[in-house]
Amino acid sequence: MKYPPQFLTGFALLFWGWQTEMMIAGIALATIIEGARFTQVKYDFKQRDFRNVWNLCGAIFIGVFFFVYTSGGGYDFLTIIKWLPMIFGLLAVVVSYSESRIVDYRVFRLFYWERAGKKIIGLDFTYPYIATIIAATSAANVRDIWFYAGLCAVMTWALWRFRSKSYPVWLWILALAIVITAGFAGSVGLQMADSYVTERMVEYFAESLREDTDPFKTHTAMGQLGKLKLSEKILARVHRAGVKINLADPVLLIESSYNTYRRTAWYTARSAFKDLKPEKNGVTWRIGKGTPGPERIAITTELKKGSGLAFSVERAVTFESLAAKKVGVNRMGAVKLTSAPEFLNYSVALGKESTNIGSPDHFDLAIPKNLEPVVGAIAKELKLATLRPETVLAVVSRYFAEKYSYSLELSGRRGKIDPVADFLLRTKQGHCEFFATATVMLLRKAGLPARYTVGYLAHEYSWLEKSIVVRGRDAHAWVSVYIGGKWRSFDTTPPSWVSADAENSTLLEPLKDLFSYIGWLISTWRNSDSDTDYTLPIGVALVLLMIYMVSRSMGGTKLNRTKISSKEDQSGEIRSGAESGLYKLEKKLAKTGRGRHPWETYSAWIARIEDNETRPVIKCVQPLLDLHNRMRFDPTGITETEKKNLDEGVGAAITLAGRISDGGS
Question: What are the boundaries of each domain within the chain?
Answer without folding.
Answer: 8-162+539-553, 164-204, 576-657
